[in-house]
Write a structure and sequence with these properties.
Distance between the termini: 39 Å
Structural class: alpha+beta
Order of helices and strands: EEEHEE
Strand order of the largest sheet: 1-4-5
Number of strands: 5
Helix content: 10-25%
Oligomer: single chain
């Protein structure tokens, strides 16, 4: 893979609607228009802060060879607060 870089995007997706979080509380069906969190911990903190309990974390790769999306169920409401750790 010399000269190429496997870019990973961390997204939040509504479990029921399958829409991706975009910006300013808007949601989109297009993952390329979705807000890209730098790290999964940033996405988790955002979901917790905004009381998004019906979302999942989606890891998406830009390389066409890696078009598979890995979905990790995320029950934010059941996650412990970072302060409690």
């Amino acid at each position: 893979m010399r000269g190429s870089c496997l870019l990973m995007k961390v997204l939040l997706q509504n479990i029921e609607t399958k829409l991706y979080y975009s910006v300013l509380g808007l949601w989109t069906e297009n993952p390329t228009l979705a807000y890209h969190f730098r790290h999964s911990t940033q996405a988790l903190a955002f979901a917790r802060r905004n009381h998004l309990s019906n979302v999942q974390l989606v890891i998406r790769f830009d390389d066409p060879q890696w078009q598979h999306i890995v979905r990790t169920p995320l029950l934010v409401a059941t996650l412990p607060s970072p302060l409690a750790m």
